[in-house]
Write a structure and sequence with these properties.
The chain is α/β, with parallel strands linked by helices. The chain has helices at residues 8-18, 27-30, 35-41, 44-54, 57-74, 89-94, 170-173, 196-209; strands at 79-82, 99-103, 134-137, 150-156, 176-191, 214-216, 222-228, 232-243. The protein has eight helices and eight strands; from the N terminus they run H-H-H-H-H-E-H-E-E-E-H-E-H-E-E-E. Helix 1 packs antiparallel against helix 4 (44-54).
Length: 245
């Protein structure tokens, strides 16, 4: 079993170990510009490091705390990391052999500047950017797994999930095993004094109080303040469900 990652620094080290020929001291120059410009310069290891560096210590610690809670209490053996993008924290935490990366690669968007047309497709080929591990091209509406076959499904801040619509989709619920866990985390900036995150958390808890198939896991639920700016505040919003069995 791999050593449990406990900090952002250890996660960066784990990614660096997977790509030993990549020099961390090169990052400041590589990470200039917007996400699309960076993607044109970086390969998979660079994009993984870019993702980690762009997240605050508080956000990563939030995930690590909850992953530890899941591992200690449920010990999942088959894990689906849904719509993973460039995120590789689950495989580095739970172990490469346990995690299946799911992503639906998309085509180059129509609004790409003329001078970049034909050059940015690789930015959207997410499965190519997660390094080692099992990878399946699919989306959350048509998962290629048997009913009740997955111990843990992780969704981190991806459409169609956001503060406006964070409920578990039936097509994902179908594959979660008896006693299995659905874990959702989303980080978002909101106007100061907004209480939408707390409202959504209340709605989620009420929604699953009487649900026949799933129940709330209190230890995975919460709204945390990440960073406060002059006109907005970034929050981390998470909840967990367990299939009854």
């Amino acid at each position: 079993m791999p050593q449990r990652i406990q900090s952002k620094k250890q996660l960066l080290a784990a990614i660096g170990a997977e790509f030993p020929f990549f020099k961390l001291e090169d990052l400041p120059n590589l990470l200039n510009g917007n996400s699309l410009q960076r993607a044109l310069r970086l390969d998979s290891r660079g994009m993984q490091l870019d993702l980690v560096i762009s997240q605050t210590d508080q956000e990563i610690n939030h995930m690590l705390e909850h992953y530890g809670f899941i591992e200690d209490n449920y010990d999942p053996q088959i894990i689906v990391h849904l719509a993973n993008g460039f995120d590789t924290l689950p495989k580095h935490y739970f172990g490469l052999e346990k995690v299946i990366h799911i992503s639906a690669d998309t085509k180059e968007p129509d609004n790409v500047p003329e001078n970049l047309k034909g050059k940015v497709d690789k930015f959207y080929h997410f499965l190519d950017r997660v390094g080692e591990g099992e990878k399946v091209s699919a989306d959350g509406y048509n998962l290629p797994f048997k009913d009740k076959s997955i111990d843990l499904v992780i969704v981190k801040g991806n459409a169609p999930y956001d503060f406006a619509n964070p409920e578990l989709h039936p097509s994902i619920a179908r594959v979660i095993s008896e006693g299995g866990i659905f874990y959702y985390l989303h980080s978002q900036g909101l106007p100061n004094l907004s209480n939408i995150a707390e409202i959504r958390m209340r709605d989620i808890k009420q929604r699953y109080e009487q649900d026949e198939a799933f129940k709330i896991v209190p230890g995975l639920c919460g709204v945390r303040l990440l960073t406060k700016y002059e006109h907005s505040t970034w929050y981390s919003f998470s909840y967990g469900l367990q299939r009854k069995g």
